[in-house]
Amino acid sequence: MSWRHHGHGRGRAGYHHGNLREALIEAALALIPESGPLGFTFAEAARQAGVSPAAPYRHFRDRDHLLADIAQQGFERFAEALTAAWNDGAPDALTALCGIGKAYLAFARTQPGYYAAMFEAGIALDATPELRDAGDRAFAILRNAAERTIAGLPEGKRPPALMVALHIWSLSHGIASLFGGRTTPVRAMPMSPEDLLEAGVLVYLQGLGLPKQG
Amino acid sequence: MSWRHHGHGRGRAGYHHGNLREALIEAALALIPESGPLGFTFAEAARQAGVSPAAPYRHFRDRDHLLADIAQQGFERFAEALTAAWNDGAPDALTALCGIGKAYLAFARTQPGYYAAMFEAGIALDATPELRDAGDRAFAILRNAAERTIAGLPEGKRPPALMVALHIWSLSHGIASLFGGRTTPVRAMPMSPEDLLEAGVLVYLQGLGLPKQG
């Protein structure tokens, strides 16, 4: 948190606009793994950031507004991760789709604070226009991948790309949430979350009528 | 909360063992929708239940122990709901599997407090032997449904029932978590969560080589 070097303790005038905002986001991201995305107050985020209880109101209306800002930043990073996975030189659409699913699992595992703010805080996607745009951009990557995938089917046999995208998203999200963390609700997992996802995507694509490798 | 009638305010001796435990569970279930499964302290649960801050320690080691007890009760109710869906006179295995998935969605929607304690609190399934047993019993229903489903395939072409059960579970969980609540991360959902799940299960079963209706 670079702002600390600029004058922690100097009072209101000491904080640069962008730095305080980032400091509050970092504070919330540190609190979320312990108490969940709804389990901290605005005052606790201020304390964690080392600022006065009133300071957060300079940037955010309330805690949910802070969470919406975190979710927006999360969707932006998420879109970067999905784009990188998609561009990663996949030889075919099916491998590319699995690559996106695995980027989803990796994001959930490495960015639990963002993931919780994006998907577990009950923040509406239209809470702010910026959040809506960021969420739409991330989803567009998945939807494009679904469109590329079903392009391999004869025209009359193509399911709606939106439905395919929602299915792949739901399967990835379910596996990430249930089996991607430290604790899982099954005694002995027969395979890794990544392999479970890949197997599921392949069965699903078979069901659409796509060959195993295109 | 029937214990209230027996002597709210009478002090330690006034509470029957089972009633205090139930009162604390009810208090936590009331707190979870607002603050998440990790967002309340043991003392807040006591206050919500109208008992002294020390009272919870008569039944629970700490808040996570209380959450494990709630998750156990949740898995017991969940197993009842899944069993009812399974026995609901389904004409074939595919319809039965969708019935179980829809019972999953209904449980997530109507029992958000239990659902969060079971799946979003990071409580390990082996936190208590009772929790492990309850979780295992609920999963056994899903696994049996998966076994009945793949029994329709020739012997050499049957996938592992455990894997099928985990896929259906993950898809149901993903749809429930992403699209089953008040807020969803997609601008315009093309269909209800129930229809999205049914379509996904049917494509998946097609991919296994099962006919659309068996």
Uncertain stretches of chain A: 1-14
Q: Would you identify the CATH architecture of the largest domain in chain A? A: Orthogonal Bundle
Please, what is the average pLDDT of chain A? 87
- The CATH topology of the largest domain in chain A turns out to be Tetracycline Repressor, domain 2
Through-space gap between termini of chain A: 47 Å
- Mind summarizing the main beta sheet of chain A? none
What gyration radius of chain A follows from the Cα positions, in whole Å?
20 Å
Query: Assembly state here?
Result: homodimer
- Structurally, how many domains make up the residues of chain A? 2
Q: Give the percentage of residues in beta strands of chain A.
A: under 5%
Number of strands of chain A: 0
Task: Quickly name the level 1 CATH class of the largest domain in chain A.
Answer: Mainly Alpha
Fraction in helix of chain A? 55-70%
Which structural traits does this protein have?
homodimer; 214 residues; mainly alpha; Arc Repressor Mutant, subunit A; Tetracycline Repressor, domain 2; 2 domains; 0% strand; elongated; disordered N terminus
